[in-house]
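ping. complex inputs:
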Amino acid sequence: MSFYFAQLLTGLANASSLFLVASGLSIIFGVTRIVNFAHGSFFMLGAYLAYTFVNILPQGVLGFWGAVIVAAAMVSLIGAVIEFAILRRIYHAPELFQLVATFGVVLIIQDLTLWIWGAEDLIGPRAPGLTGAVRIFGEPIPEYDLLLIAIGPVVLCGVWLIFHRSRWGVLVRAATQDREMVGALGVNQSWLFTSVFMLGSFLAGRGGALQVPREAATLLMDLNVIAEAFVVVVIGGMGSVLGAYVAATLIGVLNAFGILIMPTIALVLPFLVMAVVLVVRPWGLFGRPERPQHSALESETPLRLLSGPAAYALFGAVVLMALAPLAVDEFMLVLAVDILIASLFAASLHFLMGLGGMVSFGHAAYFGLGAYAAALATTTLGLGMIASMILAPIAGAMGALVIGWFCVRLSGVYLAMLTLAAAQIVWSIAFQWRDLTGGDDGVLGVWPAEWATSKTTYYYLALALCVGGIWLLHRMAHSPFGYVLRGGRDSALRAEAIGIDLRRHQWAGFVAAGALAGLAGAVFAFSKGSVFPDELAIPRSIDGLIMVLLGGVHALFGPILGASAFTLLEDWITRFDYWRFIFGLVILAIVIAAPDGLAGGLNRLGGLLTSLRNKEAAR
Amino acid sequence: MTNRRTFITCAAAALAAPLFAGAPVLAADAPIKVGEVNSYTRLPAFTEPYRNGWQLALEEINAAGGIKGRKIEVISRDDAGKPGNAVKIAEELVSSDGVVMLFGTFFSHIGLAVTDFAKQRKVLFIASEPLSDAIVWSKGNRYTYRLRPSTHMQAAMLAEMAAKLDATRWATVAPNYAYGTDAVAAFKSELKKRKPEVEFVDEQWPTLFKMDGGSTVRAIERAKPDAIYNVTFGSDLAKFVREGAIRGLFDGREVVSLLTGEPEYLDPLGGEAPVGWIVTGYPWYDITTPEHQAYVEAYKAKWGESPKTGSLVGYNSMLAVAEVLGNAKSTDTEDLLAAMDGLTFNSPSGSITFRASDHQSTMGAWVGRTGLRDGKGVMVEWSYKNGADYLPSDAEARAMRPAD
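pong. complex structure:
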């Protein structure tokens, strides 16, 4: 019994450190609706800064806790600068666009941290006075763990008091419910948002600083913590700090006991818990149904069919691409295949996001399912390349059929997070089922058939499949099915009021997007020769998301622009030292210059040129 | 809608320009180009020392006149930790840059992706750092060679030491991915071979770099093992050491730990480095052979820091590249492959041979116990184990490889 009690305490200590990070994220999301990808980076900075200050400040209890506070305060200032300099400019961009900006910030902070602190892991001292363990029922429990267990509820109470017993907190809660109304009552929203962002960053920084006595400060901390922090926030219910506490406790304790029964469970446990919770409670444990924000009611410019000249020009461009092998070298064709794959992948995601209004954080699942289906069909079943490629969209569609059935019951960020959970579950199966998939040693030897070995032939094949897939998506966008999806996105209530079974259409939308993402996966598999669980993992989903948002979510050709720009930039910039810093800056520059994405930016540029020309003509 | 095509074409043209500008000059004294790819941004703590190592060797080789009067030029790229990127970069190195061979990679899965690429494109690849046994055995091919002592070899070295201990009840803890599972499987089979009465009472598989230190330590404690075999590394190792020490997990227990004696893992632990663990590693500070001392001095002079295991692997990789380029009749892949079989060269860590049977090098590792010196973790009572003694026989090795 005493063993299990001690295990419980260990789980609670972990839960506390998870909660400290998640609480800040929850507050920021609840108020500003920013999916703050850089929250993990703030956590990492907190740890590194605390490490530095612990060594600078005089040793002892005061020095240690001083370092924790100073580190958290500095992170909070960094957060303020980022909010002030970047995020404030793009609050009115389409939903989730801020995610791209925070992604840029992640890249920049990664390289800055490497530059300032170096590559080696840094182990700070243990907390003075709390270096030992006490015996509880005969089991050794680290004193610092006990402190962490106590800190969790203290922070929870503190946050609750701030939000319920101060004027600032009341305003923040009001802004959470209705931003415009608070603004109309004369409250300066900008500063409210900045201060919320600072508080959230402070909590993240302190969470990182408090980890110093437990683990080394490493360059992988940011991405390691961010997914789980989001999971905790979503399980708890967006914006509910109490929910985050309960969720963190749930995960921490389940993990502590889970690994006693099944040691490998840690790989996927948080996502399993999230999937179960969201299926049972679509708004998390303590969340409430999302209120539609006013901006959601503004309708977008409707999609238009191509005009005659534009269609000819498009046809010309495709012909040009078909002639490309005559002019460029082999590697350019390889890169072009990468761009085609990324374009089809992004376009299929855009079909869900842009047209259907269903954001997917787990789109890599269908891509990876397609890639694995094609790879396994050709290596284990011995099917030919074309037969294997045909299986890929089927696998993607099957995956989407199952995942979509659960997801269409949800909406907004909850839907997005359920797709993430599903993708992580698929990923963990591919990772763990070594007999079938080879685990992370992957499936090797997935090369094109004899007749398609030459780069040129494979390029034509990829061109036909990807352009065909994109054409199909665009065709669907302009079909009645596409109109229903867009109608459902703009107003689910009205769509259902005129007798449309929206869920069924959205489900079909999932399947279509999944099938084409699967096709992209098959083209990928045969172009790289090997498939690894990476193709199912979060970074690929995020890349897709960035491509769509960067390109512009409101335009059909946005994802293609975004995918091309992203792939080319990545290929080019990774040639430099500290390329992540440069890449991050480029992304931020694009984000600030074109808050409606590249497509929107180009449109405005085009409009500007036309009006200039008209003025000239008038003169 | 037309915008996107023109964008692609323009961007493609802009990108292509520098590529064409660098078209290979086929003069007799033009440098020999060699391609290199590694995960420099994903795991800089391991790959930066490696880069320092090969850059030092490259400088020395070129200063000494290069290969047959030609200098070596290494085109080095970062794969950002993505296997798909690594394959794309390898493709560019081979088809656009015109490199004659490839070397590098750290992660096993990226090493495997490039291994398979080498087979498809028929180009020589020396896998410098990845440890996976599959690279030379189950997925081996005639174009791929591997330098660093593999998971199996290092696990076998430790099993030999572990068999001499009194312990019979063992627990294992390893990160849950291919390297961890391979390392545990190899250790188990090698230890059982030497000491059939051992039993394995618990296995922990924390997620790589996300170990829940406290819970894992307690789960091992519950099994009451006599000894522990550890494969965790990096930030997981730090957590394991801290949480284990504070909970008394290591009191009265032998710990056998893979790679923990390498400076990459031992240095960050500082004064908290465990004492008395049996480890494989690299005690560069105490190796007194003249060739090694010369290497350490040159390394410190050039980089202003002490070498790590990656540095030695990088340095030896470059030596292997130079040796094969020097021995081969030409830089054609077939000539290079002919020169690779049984290629023997001298390195700071002694003579190394690439076995013809499975393409694994005989580069060894140092096995000893950990200790503390001046508040820093070091290896003590160590000895160098030649890799050749821990490899299966040529016939056994050949049997494990797919037919070419």
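Residues 2-32 of chain A form the longest helix (31 residues).
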